[in-house]
Amino acid sequence: MRIDTGRVVHGGREALVVTVAGEIDVLTVDRLRAAVAAGFEQLPDGATLVIDMTDVTFLGSPGLQALVDATRAARRRSEPLHIAVDYTRPVIRPIELAGLDDVLALFHTVDQAVTS
Amino acid sequence: MNFNPRWLSEPFDDVRPPLQLQMVATDRNVSLARRRLRDWLTADVSSELVDDLVLAAYEAMTNAVEHGYADCPHGPVRLQARRSSDHVLITVSDDGSWRVPINDHFRGRGLSLIRLLADDVHIAAGPDGTVVRLWAEAPYEGLAHLRSRPAARRATSLGPPAAR
Q1: B9, B81, B86, B84: which is closest to B38 by C-alpha?
Q2: Which of A3, A52, A65, A112 is most buried by its number of CB atoms within 10 A?
């Protein structure tokens, strides 16, 4: 799994984007959790935290739980957390089967996740 | 109680050699087994079903690691995948005492995913271990080619089959 974080400005809105690529499983999920936690710490006022999952090739229940926990953390902090999934089947399929498509703030593209 | 589905007792006609892996129950081995299963399935299973079955098998193996051997870590986990002309049967087994934690949302989610990802799931849990069987309908398109080629060869050497 590769993961990096960068600042993005799009349509006059600012976001911190955590880009994840590869497989999210028990071995790698802690790196996702750490990157999201660091993202919240670095998040500028008024900016959105975005997790870009469009290059994720495997998402199991450990990763699903990490996304749920991140969404809860965002709600507690009153900061927006948006997740870009595009049409990435290995990501969308487990999210929908787990009934999390109503829980997570999902967007097709990173640009939509930034400006919404 | 676990209802025994009909496919559990019916003969399974393999169209190619099964995948058989036995590993020590660690997260790393389970991740490696997941990739081996993906490669094995990709030969003749649609990519959507490959994704579903790989995820289901992964969740079952992760359960074995996390709950099968809570008291004695590093026991064995076995993964078997079989292919017939219309189904895939995946078996994940361990020798531990697998249990479904009621207050653990994360693992509970894993188990409900398993049930949604395969067409049918059978779980036999006992004091000596747990066997999770995943059953999925999967038309085997490779078989059509295997059948048509020898038939064509026979037709040229022996002539058309006699009319009945």
Answers
A1: B81
A2: A52
CB contact under 8 A, A61 and B110: yes
Judge contact between A13 and A20, C-beta under 8 A.
Answer: no
CA–CA separation, B158 vs A61, rounded Å? 57
Residues 6+ apart with CB under 8 A from B35: none
Closest Cβ–Cβ partner in A26, A65, A89 for B27: A26
Query: What dotted CATH number matches A6-56+71-115?
Result: 3.30.750.24
Kindly list the domain boundaries of chain B, sorted by start residue.
14-99+125-140
ipTM of this predicted structure: 0.90
Distances (CA, A) of A59 to B40, B56, B61, B78, B146: 19, 11, 15, 22, 35
Tell me how many residue pairs between chain A and chain B have CB atoms under 8 A apart. 52
Sign of the four-CA dihedral B113, B115, B120, B124? positive
| Selection from A18, A81, A6 nearest residue A53 by Cα | A18
Element containing residue A70 per DSSP (H, E):
helix A61-77
> If you ran DSSP here, which 8-state letter would residue B110 be given?
H
A106-107 vs B19-24, strand pairing mode: unpaired
Q: Check: pTM over 0.90? Answer yes or no.
A: no
Contacts A65 to B, Cβ<8 Å: 105-106, 109
Give Cα B119 to chain centroid, integer Å. 11
Whether the predicted pLDDT of B79 surpasses 90: yes
pLDDT digits over B110-135, tens only? 888 999 999 999 998 888 888 999 99
Please report where in the chains the tokens 């990096």 appear, as a residue: A4
